[in-house]
Design a protein that fits this description.
heterodimer; A: alpha/beta; Rossmann fold; 4-stranded antiparallel sheet; 9 helices; B: mainly alpha; 8 helices; flat; binds adenosine-5'-diphosphate; binds magnesium ion
Amino acid sequence: MSLVELKGVVKRFGTNTVLDDVSMNVERGEIIAVIGRSGSGKSTMLRCINGLEPVQGGTVVVDGETVSAPGADLRALRQRVGIVFQSYNLFPHLSVEKNITLAPRVVKGIDPGTARELALGVLRRVGLAEKIDAYPDQLSGGQQQRVAIARSLAMQPKLMLFDEITSALDPELTGEVLKVLEQVAAEGMTMILVTHEMGFARRVATRVVFMHQGRIWEEGGAREVLEKPRTPELATFLDAVLH
Amino acid sequence: MIREFAAIDVYYLLLAARWTLALTALAFVGGGLFGIVVALMRVSPFMPLRALGAAYVNVVQGIPLLGWLFVFFFGLPILASVQVSSWVAATVAFSFYAGAFLGEIWRGCLQAIPRQQWEAGAALGLGFGEQLRHVIVPQAVRVAIPPTVGFLVQLIKNTSLGAVIGFVELTREGQLTNAATYRPFTVYIAVAAIYFAMCFPLTQLSRRLERRLRVAR
Ligand SMILES: Nc1ncnc2c1ncn2[C@@H]1O[C@H](COP(=O)(O)OP(=O)(O)O)[C@@H](O)[C@H]1O
Ligand SMILES: [Mg+2]
């Protein structure tokens, strides 16, 4: 069974159909890069996968749990699915350590003695162990984003969703975040990432999905999608982002 | 007979100021409880609760405070045949009134926290109450201090309305003193000075707290 199964997913905001019959399977260990123009529904698709947005049609199944069913256990689901946002969304009133350990303590009930160890462990993975006692506003954008990734890792998710996590960063800071992503990928994490970094997508993704007007317009291996677009929409899009 | 305004009058004014403070404190505690409930109702994901909270605020704010004092003091004996003292009536009316205003102030503070903060909590598996308690409220408290103290200062001054149902506090005592001494200028300067002595430290405290919380994030 696939880790993620989207079947005929329809998402509307009022009369605006944002996801129009989206179907996709993601296997364990896959790294899916989602590309497409702004407004094509990429973020919405991620948000439907972890139940932040309810869907109006179709089914969303993650790790055997039907997210789209009424009364789905979203709390249990979100312990298995991490999401990192473009705007980091760290908790400004909490130190890096507390940002990371809040959910493990409150949701999973780990004991406070091991919380700091847990925080240190994930911070090492993103190369920020020395910032454990800092507050978010003392960190650069790139560092904040790495803490956000660490916070998500601390829940030991089976799937991680990344929504344009380098788009708000100055170009010189995107590298450090991409490096962390690449390392998480190398550790075998299943990931779906929305990105405009085509070089990164080609290098790391096992599959690329191109979204257009709320549909999955093209998908396939990274090279084949990025080098040989079959539709004029993808060709136009690639032209625009690569030049 | 008109007598001189003397030190003893200042003493009586100070005694009366205790009742101003006592009524303010009771109303603030009562209003605070109502206010927390109202603010939470108004940000709840459950529509009927939001509507109920809004209805309470609209009804209370749509009728003058004077009206509420009359309702509880003169209305209750007639409607429910329970006799209430001016203390009870004033405490209930002021709590009711403060609850609506504090509820609105605190709702605003909760809503001032960006939606993404709720979402980040939800994405980590926190439930609504946990998001509120660990993520939203700690941030909202910082925003809430200045307007809350501002309202408290208003409340101190508004308690003078309690006089209409026979509640003797600072302003009423001032009127009585003036009637006996016929020294309006002196009397009301004294009254004003006492109000100032109660309100000013609060404003200062608010500034200090604000600064402290900013440093401690
Ligand atoms: N909360 C919302 N309410 C109404 N419309 C929304 C909301 N979120 C997204 N949309 C609309 O859905 C469409 C797709 O948005 P989004 O998924 O954010 O696209 P992308 O991430 O590809 O840029 C856009 O037209 C956007 O305006
Ligand atoms: Mg987006």
